[in-house]
Each structure stands twice: as structure tokens, then as C-alpha cells.
Design goal:
This protein has 203 residues and is an alpha/beta fold. Helix content is 28%, strand content 23%.
Length: 203
């Protein structure tokens, strides 16, 4: 169990058990006046089932759970890939797309199968991220970030996680799995959402 946070630096607990996401969030939050700790550092750490029908609702479920477990500030995020040719799917179901048992590579393969007959100019998509922050006294804050792109014909790159290998970002001419971590954090949905959240985390 992590030690108690100091009076001058309250603890902010990241409500994720995804190590890749935790690393990104910790880097994006560098410099905020908090002791940033991942939820996995706490004994008995668990996340609630994402039963909400919106990113905001799922982010809030996670942030509340982290704040309650740690007795500290909790930060939860929920994000998804919205593909125009699929009517905005997989959207809030992105982490569960294709059904149970699939890993990231399996979900990417299922997505590409769904888009097999869609021409490049119709493969527009966006990543959307909503961040919820819950204070120990229950006050809630929200921030959102969006990045526009195109679904590539095949996975490219070895960085990132999730759908990054097929999310082509035209301004950089690469997928989000081909860019450096710094490049990704500068342009992607999570980076934009955290920068928006820093306004109330730094106040």
C-alpha cells in the first residue's frame, strides 16, 4: 500500500490497470501539484464494470472507484474509436469490440474486416477521450479531447496500444503506433484531454 500523501501534495490516483495507459497518463500529468499514483499500486485494486452508455459515464465510474479506494483524488478516463463508415462504432464499446476473448490485435483485425470494402476516402475516424476527476469531497470535473484521422488498410508500427497501429494521422503521415511517444502525446485524444484537465488540476 502506498504511503500517505503529504499535505502539500495530495494524491491523484489513476483509475486504470492498463500499464500502457498509466505510463501515458503519468507522463502527461508531469508537473501537476499531485503525487500521481496508478491504481495497481493499491492492494485489492479493481475497476467497476463499464456499464454506462457514454464515455463520460464510464470515466466517472472509474474515477469514483479510485477516489473511494484510495481516499484521494481519482482520475478516470474512457475513450473510443469512432469510425464514420460504421456509424460511429465501435465508440463506447471499443475495448469490447468483436466480443469477449479478443486482445488488441484481434479487435484491430475485426475492425479491418468490417472495413474491407470501404475505400480509403471513406475510412475517416476519430479517437475521443473523456476524463473525469473526482475530489475526496465528491466534487467532479470533466475534460474531453478528440483527434481526427483515417483507418489504415493494415496495421503499421509497434508503439502505442489498442487501435493505434491502424489509426493514421495525416498531419504526421504515420499511424499513432509509428510516432514517438512524445509525438503521440502532443496530438492524440488522451493528450488533448489531459491538457484540458490540467486547468483544474493545476488550480
Amino acid at each position: 500500500m502506498p504511503s500517505a500523501s503529504s499535505p502539500s501534495r495530495p494524491r491523484l490516483v489513476l483509475a486504470t490497470l492498463n500499464h500502457g495507459k498509466a505510463r501515458e497518463l503519468e507522463a502527461l500529468l508531469r508537473g501537476v501539484p499531485f503525487e500521481v499514483t496508478a491504481l495497481a499500486a493499491f492492494a485489492g485494486a479493481a475497476l467497476p464494470e463499464e456499464t454506462a452508455d457514454s464515455y463520460r459515464g464510464n470515466a466517472l465510474l472509474k474515477a469514483r472507484a479510485a477516489a473511494r479506494l484510495a481516499g484521494a483524488w481519482g482520475l478516470g478516463d474512457d475513450s473510443g474509436l469512432e469510425v464514420d463508415a460504421l456509424g460511429g462504432a465501435p465508440g463506447v464499446q471499443s475495448a469490447r469490440y468483436g466480443g469477449p476473448g479478443l486482445d488488441d490485435a484481434g479487435r484491430v483485425a475485426r475492425l479491418l474486416e468490417s472495413l474491407a470494402a470501404v475505400p480509403p476516402e471513406k475510412r475517416t475516424a476519430r479517437f475521443r477521450c473523456v476524463i473525469a476527476v473526482v475530489e475526496p469531497d465528491g466534487r467532479e470535473h470533466f475534460a474531453e479531447g478528440v483527434v481526427e484521422g483515417v483507418i489504415a488498410a493494415a496495421p503499421r508500427g509497434t508503439g502505442g496500444f489498442g487501435y493505434d497501429p491502424v489509426f493514421y494521422y495525416p498531419p504526421l503521415g504515420r499511424t499513432l503506433a509509428e510516432v514517438t511517444p512524445a509525438e503521440k502525446m502532443a496530438v492524440d485524444h488522451r493528450g488533448r484531454a489531459v491538457r484540458a484537465a490540467r486547468r483544474f488540476l493545476s488550480g
